[in-house]
Amino acid sequence: MQFTFACKRKRCSNKNVNSTxxxxxxxxxxxxxxxxxxxxxxxxxxxxxxxxxNGCFGKGSKSRGAPESGDEDETLLLGMExxxxxAHYLNVLDITNSAGCFMDFHRFVEVAEEQNDxxxxxxxxxxxxxxxxxxxxxxxxxxxxxxxxxxxxxxxHASFLVIVQKPGDSDHYQSKNLKGVQRVAxxxxxxxxxxxxxxxxxxxxxxxxQEASVTETIVRRFNYLTFVQSKQQ
Amino acid sequence: xxxxxxxxxxxDIHPRNSYLSAQQLIAHRHTEFEPxxxxxxxxxxxxxxxxxxxxxxxxxYLRAQLSVPRIERLGGRALxxxxxxxxxxxxxxxxxxxxNFGYSEQGKLYLEYYEAMFLLEVGRLQLEYCGSxxxxxxAYVLLLGELExxxxxxxxxxxxxxxxxxxxxxxxxxxxxxxxxxxxxCIWALLSEKVADQPVPDHIKNSPFYHIAEKRxxxxxxxxxxxxxxxxxxxxxxxxxQFGQRKRMADERPIKEPASKKEKLSTxxxxxxxxxxxxxxxxxxxxxxEKFEMVQLKTQDYTKEELDTPSALKIIFDLHLHNKxxxxxxxxxxNFNVIILSSQATFPTHDEIAKIKHQSLHTxxxxxxxxxxSKQIQAFLYYIS
Lengths: 233, 385
Description:
The complex is a heterodimer. By secondary structure, chain A is of the alpha+beta class. Chain A contains 6 helices and 10 strands.
């Protein structure tokens, strides 16, 4: 059985033809973000638009997806993993804390790990999937860690619901949990992608993530009845 | 029963039991029961009068459903005797086709417990134990065991998959699948015995071609050594024939069989989410994307010890499709290998599945079937990196 993945195009017309998958700061101006304690906020509307248009990063503070409410005080909120990626792997973002001091990689990871003890695993998965050209969004509304899209959430439905695990975790292999998350994902034509991440023990610079390794598992419900019926004809 | 008087010419028969008429017989063969429809499901005991009434009606309905006299054809059944020691049912009398059931040993046909149970449930088997006929209820205890075991889930899976149209057979381990020994195999084995001093494997020795090939080789040897050739053409021809067979074997085997089969079965070592790399945007920004390609896909290296320890997951059944020409005597590669999970068991992890694949214990894609607490079965396919 060869593996093929679901990739359903949305019905709306293509809004943005000239988008690039990653933002860059060719004109020399770096994006400026402020760490609020939960996420990183981009206040400048132009920068916010540019970040969202090139790679669909972040979420409008007053919208479901892109910042498009039209309100002047709408900001772009970046999740912890994506802001870390933009700041320290793509090197286009400067993050300051609420007092206005610059946050370096070490400090940022420390704060993020306080929030989420799985941050390093999540970050490794984020970088792993990003290097494969996926657009990554939070998966909280489907009960997972990430949702990954082809090109843009505007154009395609998410193909996978990603669940990140540490090596010893067996939570999602409990039959009721796995079946539950699968049913939720299946109603919207997604597959469940389980990533088990062996994170590096000690991380002091962005490059240390090279020590991390990932295994991928996709478990799919299989309708044995329709399979055998389709083969009989 | 019958009275016969000398005066009358008539014979009166008074049957002891009453017999059903033809119409009644047909009506009883397909009695249909409509379940009583009643409002919302109840989740708690309330003890109210209406609830008691509802309960009473439900019980009456069940009783009515169960107490209908059942009509079945007595003849259409095979007869088997349960052997409790070996936990198999020996078929004494066959009835109808038995093509995909049981296995033969020393000329006798035996049924596994799940096969016997299934045939019993569908009314094709009469099972006897210690000289008396076993009822279905007794068979559950006798065949599936009094204590809780995996036998019940195995039977459930067997029955559900058989009913939905698969041929379900006991899992055959890859090395046990009998390879067909051709005469060319025998010639090769003989040659390596003579030239390289390697003993001839048993399965080749048992082949009907072996002795023919051995004889022929002796003949040829005889003719070459004695040089008393009456008809040299035949000798040359024979050698030619052998070479022809040999060549074909060498050419076809490695390309056709193992290479493609292995390729199909394993996705190991490859990522499952690489598809977007073929996109135009990826090619355009490849330099940048490659910069973050730092998190690696884990590749497992197993030590010999790890490989030798048996996996906790057991492949129980093989699934075949009906239209693929399955034969019990010469099983082909199955369509799926079935692993059964009980309701409490956790799903196999990446590493457990990877280990099975690495040990190459499977012969087909693995189908993980979980039996839930409510005895529903659900199948899952695994794709791993």
